[in-house]
Amino acid sequence: MRLYLIPFCALILTATLGACSDGETPQADAGAINPEATAEPSPEPAPFYVGQWAADPVWCTDQTDGFPITITPTAFEGRENICEMTEIETTPEGGATARLTCRSEGETIVEPISFAQAGEQIAILWPERGTEATLFSRCE
């Protein structure tokens, strides 16, 4: 009797699985055969100025005497303020300019800012302040 039980169970299982099928042959997922066929286009890389930066690399880890800034594609964040970046444009030299709208302690300041690549660093210039560009190193 036991010998007949295994083929009988296999027959029941096959019939049950067949009843669940809609009669169509399953198609292979195109992405499983060729992952590039269904892959989304890769996003644009972030602009060179996006990241966490410090005028002194020590500030990336020890914020006793200074602190890093964080730049996102649309914001410039310092210790006590967050500035919205708008009107972002690339320059012919490969840099970028933007308009900052900063709010801190109840005040709003609107001013331009410029970013330029300087090897592994970036040079940041606030043109209306009449100062030299400041070099910032990327924090790891």
Shape: globular
* Mean pLDDT value: 79
The overall number of domains is: 2
Tally of contiguous helical segments: 3
Question: What's the helical proportion of residues?
Answer: 10-25%
Number of strands: 8
How large, in whole angstroms, is the Cα Rg?
30 Å
Give the spatial strand order of the biggest sheet. Answer: 1-2-3-4-5-6-7-8
- Residue fraction in strands: 35-45%
List SSEs in N-to-C order. Answer: HHHEEEEEEEE
Question: What does the main sheet amount to?
Answer: 8 strands, antiparallel, barrel
Protein name: Ig-like domain-containing protein
Keywords: Signal
Signal peptide: 1-19
InterPro entries: Ig-like_dom (IPR007110)
Outline the structure in words.
This protein has 140 residues and is an alpha+beta fold. The protein folds into two domains: 2-38; 51-138, no CATH class. Helix content is 19%, strand content 36%. The chain has helices at residues 2-20, 30-33, 35-38; strands spanning 51-54, 69-71, 75-77, 82-90, 96-104, 107-118, 121-125, 134-138. Strands 1-2-3-4-5-6-7-8 form an eight-stranded antiparallel β-barrel. A hairpin with a 5-residue loop joins strand 4 (82-90) and strand 5 (96-104). The longest helix has 19 residues, at 2-20. The protein starts with a helix and ends with a strand. Residues 1-22 have low confidence and may be disordered.
Quickly describe the structure.
The protein is of the alpha+beta class and 140 residues long. 19% of the residues lie in helices and 36% in strands. It is built from 3 helices and 8 strands, in the order αααββββββββ.
